[in-house]
């Protein structure tokens, strides 16, 4: 039987790629799919042209999420959830290195032949550079989040051309939705997906504006994260840490810095990954792990003996804080730093924790994003917002237009 080369197979699609704009236009999340000959599938695959989380959940996990189960309504299809951290952290990792450890084990044990992950360019520590890692050293070089839009799927052509049949992909929700939509076209025998939660991403220029308006030393920031203690934690080159309370952010200057795709996203928890590792839903200093299917459990089992774990917990009530955040964000309210610090201390003591903090974060972003889509893309509202997000948003009173 005569084989068809990938180049010939997708010649028409490559011509389309070179001659057309990105179909999602300003809503493009720069996932990288349109940089490949898989652009042929973009109208079906793109999360912002064809929202299909429910259908892809069924395909990826063999069942749909139970919308009457409060945990699945918020966190998606899953078998187990837990909090974890490595007993021996990886030096230089953003947290303790769970994601890197799983990827290294999968490569060392020949479970996969390559790992799609994101390093940074030599010129810029925050400029993402997707690669197919084939060695533990290449995986370790990708540790630490790149908090900018990243074209992870731009390497899909390389995957097909390499002849790889077993692959691990690490990515965020919009990337993974597009990946799942074209999964059958990749010619893989086994695909593993390790996801991270993602919200409020920015362009590289937007990131610079955020750093310059928020950090005391924007040029020395190594990584940062919005954490469960209601503070942004910055790590600097000299090893020092800086914290800034959420409520002290210059919202009036930063309100428009986030990418339109992120303002239109309802997959904070990466619903289509096999295994999700992130901070939301866990106590401060721990990571939140969500095992969605048997492939996810297989991945977690590889590092189970390297982890300290505990059950997830939930404490507090988020609803009043979420309701108050809706008009505050809408109006770009920024508190004086002394008031922001005081509010941060109070909320850290009495505010939501664990899964309730995760729900707070989801609620506040979903209500904001629902309003954004309603105002800017009203024709997309009904089809673009998933049913689970509509149910979550319906708990709150939104501004009348």
Automatic annotation (TrEMBL):
A Pfam match: FrhB_FdhB_C
Domain Coenzyme F420 hydrogenase/dehydrogenase beta subunit N-terminal: 81-157
InterPro entries noted in UniProt: Co_F420_Hydgase/DH_bsu_N (IPR007516), FRHB/FDHB/HCAR-like (IPR045220), FrhB_FdhB_C (IPR007525)
Domain Coenzyme F420 hydrogenase/dehydrogenase beta subunit C-terminal: 165-312
PANTHER family, A to Z: 7-HYDROXYMETHYL CHLOROPHYLL A REDUCTASE, CHLOROPLASTIC
Protein name: Coenzyme F420 hydrogenase/dehydrogenase, beta subunit C-terminal domain
Lineage: Bacteria, Bacillati, Cyanobacteriota, Cyanophyceae, Oscillatoriophycideae
């Amino acid at each position: 039987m005569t084989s068809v080369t990938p180049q010939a197979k997708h010649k028409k699609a490559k011509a389309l790629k070179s001659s057309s704009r990105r179909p999602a236009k300003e809503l493009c999340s720069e996932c990288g799919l349109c940089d490949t000959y898989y652009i042929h599938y973009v109208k079906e695959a793109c999360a912002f042209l064809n929202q299909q989380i429910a259908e892809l959940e069924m395909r990826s996990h063999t069942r749909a999420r139970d919308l009457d189960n409060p945990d699945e309504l918020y966190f998606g299809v899953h078998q187990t959830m837990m909090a974890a951290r490595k007993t021996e952290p990886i030096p230089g990792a953003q947290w303790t290195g769970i994601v890197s450890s799983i990827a290294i084990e999968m490569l060392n044990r020949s479970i996969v032949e390559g790992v799609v992950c994101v390093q940074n360019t030599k010129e810029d520590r925050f400029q993402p550079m997707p690669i197919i890692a084939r060695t533990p050293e290449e995986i370790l070089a990708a540790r630490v989040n790149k908090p900018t839009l990243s074209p992870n799927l731009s390497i899909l052509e390389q995957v097909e051309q390499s002849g790889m049949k077993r692959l691990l992909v690490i990515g965020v929700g919009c990337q993974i939705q597009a990946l799942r939509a074209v999964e059958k076209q990749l010619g893989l025998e086994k695909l593993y997906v390790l996801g991270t939660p993602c919200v409020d991403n920015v362009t590289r220029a937007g990131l610079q504006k955020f750093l310059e308006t928020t950090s005391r030393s924007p040029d020395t920031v190594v990584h940062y994260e919005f954490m469960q203690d209601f503070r942004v934690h910055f790590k600097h080159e000299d090893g020092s840490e800086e914290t800034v309370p959420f409520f002290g952010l210059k919202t009036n200057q930063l309100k428009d810095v986030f990418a339109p795709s992120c303002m239109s996203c309802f997959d904070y928890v990466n619903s289509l990954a096999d295994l999700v590792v992130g901070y939301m839903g866990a106590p401060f200093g721990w990571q939140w792990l969500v095992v969605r299917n048997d492939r996810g459990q297989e991945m977690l089992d590889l590092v189970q003996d390297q982890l300290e774990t505990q059950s997830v917990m939930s404490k507090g009530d988020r609803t009043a804080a979420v309701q108050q955040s809706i008009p505050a964000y809408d109006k770009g309210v920024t508190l004086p730093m002394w008031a922001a610090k005081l509010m941060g201390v109070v909320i850290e003591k009495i505010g939501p924790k664990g899964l309730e903090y995760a729900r707070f974060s989801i609620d506040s972003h979903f209500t904001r994003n629902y309003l954004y889509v309603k105002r800017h893309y009203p024709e997309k509202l009904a089809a673009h917002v998933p049913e689970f997000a509509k149910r979550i948003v319906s708990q709150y009173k939104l501004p009348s237009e």
